[in-house]
Please model this.
Amino acid sequence: MLTVRIEGSLRANLIAALAGARRWRGRPVHKDTLDHWNRLVAYSRETAQEPEDEPVSYLLTALEAELANSKVISTAGDALNN
Model:
């Protein structure tokens, strides 16, 4: 299982990541932030099959759609399509 350290519930973290991705839509985002959001998606996919997990599939779908259109800031500071 992928190790991701999160504070609070998985659902709360997905909501926060989705809000951030929407807030930054169309603008460059730091690679570390995109990496965190992508790790959160991967972790969510792995844990979503556990019976006691909160229903998060709609949040995952929305976050993945936002990430598909994200731009990353390169080390030189310019925006690159992800």
About this structure: The first helix runs from residue 10 to 23. Helices lie at 10-23, 31-47, 57-68. The chain has a mean pLDDT of 80.
